[in-house]
User: Which sequence fits this backbone?
């Protein structure tokens, strides 16, 4: 429409185009076949203007373009750019992308596993690698111009989030920071903080999905739209779904209704049967077949269980599903054989290679953390190429790996969070469904949720309609962080730096809202006080007497419960292996045989010594053939041995046959015995003088005779509750001010006690701790200091170091782990003793593990596996003994290798064998499946 412009306007537009052509952005845009979105252009312009940027946009919207522009600017300006990612797989993928675009000579890679061309002007790395560089003052930081932090919302991660804040705080002011985040609801707050600590930062938020997402529910043979078609932001839930949920909830026909005297007409029953026949949860093969017929493949089905992912593939194979033709099958086999050529045949058999390959050839695969990394990478490559069209995955696939699909299927809206089954959050739902819709390929993406009994369409609509979730800091000062900060900045400056953390920024902002609430509460208290006034006397005093009476009664009830628990615990302490008992209550109530009384001298299965906190926890065999470790709650009353039985030496708790035989003998021996019923004693409150005194005072008080006494009492109770809440709010205000600095002070005090710090001086012990990163950094340092690992062979050292990284997935009812004998057992015992000493010190200095600071107990569950692998045992034997998937085994080995590398750098060079043996242990672990890698 330039002909409609005046000559002056045409001249101005031409000038603007000329200026635009002279920018770095113009040259960058020409590198891409597609045009950039407005949010990408805004972010790139801000970067070229010298500003930092925070880009918050949905998954799959192309925010990494902004990170790639930072790379482009660095190369133009002759500076370095570090591109950081949260996970190694994403680092590998980004390294491949950038190498392809800029050439392998200009791009490097640094992860825990690989170091490729690390002096290149552009280096892709995990965030932890950059953090370690900052603390060590690495020469690689010279001439650093840009840092891209991809997936910066990881800052919320409970275990690793602090690393992101450490990097943001400690980077030189001259470095321009590019933060790329999923859509978060408090991007402006995070941007305000970045502005405070990094200088001028532009916040760019995009809610727009380049590929629109449609939400569906699959029930029986029908695919329902979740929302009704309509205009506006507030979409109504499909009434068909609401009606279906209501009908299922009503369950009008019940076979027992006749017995209750209700007559249900045959016609009503028939109508309901017809309705119900349309509602069921389709099977996995049925779902994939349905998606295929509707043109909705490729699809990722999220199942929150590794075993269920593998089972889903098998179900599809048994159902005869084939999603690939002959040509695609041949391509799959060629790619798979090329990628797995380095794996010996005997290992392939152990890893289930042939079953895995059969699924891939048919276009079906699983993807989860328990898989061998090479197998996962092959699945990712085949999926992107369109040669695998149905993937069953755990939620780890949603964490940044570039594997978009046309459709995403969610089997359930509930997942196990490590402690309980909990509903997935709107943020998790957004992250999972964000994979649906491939930019430049699909016109639309589809999120399909399978119908489940008792599903609420309104709840699902809430998940789908809430596009964002808040970013919450998980920052806490660690021991390693403390010595590194003090060494670089001294205590006072370190304290000030920690006060600039996002955690403290959020805490300080929240205090404003709490202060307002305190003011409101104080106004409410005045009103309550007026309403409880009594003309006969001081009702506040009368209410206090009533509360004291109630508190005393509650206290006595608790004392009684504690005495009963103590009696039960004393009885448990008398149990011996071979005692036959009757478990009085709980899931495993009934006859049981004691295998282990549960009062060990050391740790059990990686958990803080329960024998000091929860009392004995006997391991028993129930009459139903289950071997379980019981808790105090299973014994509300004292238990006595009803009989004695001999436990055969050959008994193996892991053998079903062994359990069956011994349980049968148990039922034969004691099945006829009826346990005595426990009689309750007289309540303590009946004879308590304090309760008698308070009751007398109450009856004598003037307000006791008031006609409106109970009305006044209700107002008094409200006054008391609001006063208690107000006091708690005031404590929260006090507790949130300088919280990070106060925690830092406690950490520094403990390190001073152990001679890691002397004022602003970092001692030799502290310099050693500064090289040890990890959850158990202080324990590792103390083990080096006390020479716990001296004289161990490389395999023995690997076994001991495994206790610093491993954490069992299973609950603590498992049997004690198998350990190598001799020096290893003694060294592990010494490590547990040192941990006990540190644990007591942490309690003394008020360092709380629940707040994310402190040392958890070392877990010995991987020691035997690490020892066998480092001793050159075969994969088949090691995995069989380890009882864990290959992917988990490889991941734990790599973590052990990482810590061994740190130990070799931190251990003394003279008069010690640890550094040399740590390097040898790395070489002995880094073989076979552990050594297979896609890069380097």
Assistant:
């Amino acid at each position: 429409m330039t002909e409609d412009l005046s000559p002056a306007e045409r001249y101005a537009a031409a000038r603007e185009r000329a200026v635009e052509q002279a920018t770095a952005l113009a040259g960058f845009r020409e590198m891409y076949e597609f045009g950039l979105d407005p949010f990408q252009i805004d972010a790139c312009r801000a970067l070229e203007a010298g500003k930092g940027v925070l880009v918050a946009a949905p998954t799959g919207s192309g925010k990494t373009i902004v990170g790639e522009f930072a790379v482009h600017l660095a190369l133009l300006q002759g500076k370095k750019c570090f591109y950081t990612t949260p996970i190694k797989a994403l680092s590998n993928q980004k390294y491949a992308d950038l190498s392809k675009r800029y050439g392998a000579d200009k791009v490097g890679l640094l992860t825990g596993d690989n170091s490729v061309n690390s002096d290149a002007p552009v280096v892709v790395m995990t965030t932890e690698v950059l953090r370690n560089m900052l603390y060590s003052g690495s020469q690689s930081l010279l001439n650093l111009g840009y840092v891209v932090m991809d997936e910066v919302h990881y800052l919320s991660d409970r275990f690793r989030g602090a690393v992101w804040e450490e990097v943001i705080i400690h980077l030189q002011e001259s470095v321009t920071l590019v933060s790329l985040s999923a859509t978060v609801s408090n991007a402006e707050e995070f941007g305000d903080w970045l502005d405070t600590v990094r200088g001028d930062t532009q916040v760019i938020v995009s809610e727009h999905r380049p590929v629109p997402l449609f939400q569906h529910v699959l029930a029986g043979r029908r695919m329902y739209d979740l929302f009704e078609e309509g205009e506006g932001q507030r979409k109504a839930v499909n009434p068909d779904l609401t009606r279906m949920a209501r009908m299922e909830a009503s369950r009008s026909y019940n076979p027992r209704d006749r017995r209750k005297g209700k007559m249900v007409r045959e016609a009503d029953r028939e109508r309901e049967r017809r309705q119900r026949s349309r509602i069921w949860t389709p099977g996995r093969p049925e779902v994939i077949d349905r998606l295929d017929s509707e043109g909705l493949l490729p699809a990722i089905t999220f199942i929150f269980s590794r075993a269920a992912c593998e089972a889903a593939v098998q179900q599809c194979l048994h159902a005869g599903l084939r999603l690939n033709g002959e040509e695609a099958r041949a391509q799959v086999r060629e790619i798979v054989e090329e990628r797995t050529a380095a794996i010996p045949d005997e290992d392939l058999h152990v890893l289930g290679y042939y079953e895995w390959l059969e699924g891939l050839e048919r276009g079906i695969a699983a993807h989860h953390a328990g898989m061998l990394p090479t197998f996962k990478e092959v699945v990712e490559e085949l999926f992107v190429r369109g040669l695998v069209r149905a993937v069953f995955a755990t939620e780890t696939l949603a964490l940044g790996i570039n594997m978009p699909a046309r459709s995403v299927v969610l089997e359930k809206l509930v997942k196990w969070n490590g402690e309980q089954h909990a509903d997935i959050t709107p943020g998790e739902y957004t992250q999972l469904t964000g994979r649906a819709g491939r930019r430049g390929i699909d016109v639309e993406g589809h999120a399909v949720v399978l119908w489940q009994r008792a599903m609420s369409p309104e709840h699902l609509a809430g998940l789908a309609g809430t596009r964002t979730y808040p970013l919450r800091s998980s920052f806490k000062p660690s021991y390693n962080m403390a010595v590194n900060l003090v060494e670089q900045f001294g205590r006072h400056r370190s304290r000030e730096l920690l006060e600039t953390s996002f955690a403290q920024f959020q805490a300080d902002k929240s205090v404003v809202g709490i202060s307002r609430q305190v003011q409101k509460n104080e106004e409410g208290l005045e009103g309550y006080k007026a309403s409880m006034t009594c003309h006969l006397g001081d009702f506040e005093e009368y209410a206090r007497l009533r509360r004291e009476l109630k508190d005393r009664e509650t206290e006595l009830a608790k004392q009684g419960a504690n005495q009963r628990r103590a009696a039960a615990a004393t009885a448990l302490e008398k149990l011996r292996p071979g005692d036959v008992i009757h478990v009085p209550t709980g899931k495993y109530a009934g006859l049981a045989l004691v295998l282990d009384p549960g009062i060990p001298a050391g740790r059990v299965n990686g958990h803080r010594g329960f024998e000091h906190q929860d009392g004995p926890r006997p391991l028993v065999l129930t009459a139903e053939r289950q071997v379980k470790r019981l808790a105090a709650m299973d014994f509300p009353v004292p238990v006595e041995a009803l009989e004695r039985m001999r436990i055969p030496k050959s008994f193996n708790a892991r053998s079903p046959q062994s359990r069956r035989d011994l349980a049968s003998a148990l039922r034969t021996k004691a099945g006829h015995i009826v346990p005595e019923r426990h009689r309750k004693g007289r309540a303590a409150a009946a004879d308590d003088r304090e309760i008698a005194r308070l009751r007398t005072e109450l009856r004598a008080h003037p307000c006791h005779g008031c006609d409106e006494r109970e009305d006044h009492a209700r107002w008094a109770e409200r006054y008391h509750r609001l006063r208690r809440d107000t006091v708690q709010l005031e404590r929260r205000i006090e507790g949130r001010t300088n919280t990070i600095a106060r925690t830092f002070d406690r950490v520094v005090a403990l390190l001073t006690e152990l001679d890691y710090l002397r004022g602003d001086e970092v001692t030799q012990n502290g310099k050693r701790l500064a090289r040890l990163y990890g959850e158990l950094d202080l324990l590792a340092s103390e083990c080096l200091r006390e020479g716990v690992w001296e004289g161990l062979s490389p395999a023995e050292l690997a076994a001991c170091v495994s206790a610093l990284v491993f954490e069992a997935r299973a609950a603590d009812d498992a049997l004690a782990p198998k350990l190598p004998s001799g020096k290893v057992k003694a060294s592990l015992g010494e490590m547990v003793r040192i941990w006990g000493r540190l644990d007591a010190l942490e309690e003394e200095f008020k360092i709380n593990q629940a707040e994310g600071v402190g040392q958890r107990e070392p877990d010995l569950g991987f020691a035997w596996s690490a020892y066998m692998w480092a001793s050159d045992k075969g994969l088949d034997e090691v995995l069989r003994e380890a009882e864990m998937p290959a992917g988990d085994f490889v991941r734990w080995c790599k973590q052990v290798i990482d810590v061994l590398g740190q130990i070799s750098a931190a251990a003394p060079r003279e008069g010690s064998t640890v550094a040399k043996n740590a390097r040898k242990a790395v070489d002995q672990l880094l073989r076979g499946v552990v050594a297979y890698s896609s890069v380097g």
In short: The mean pLDDT is 82.
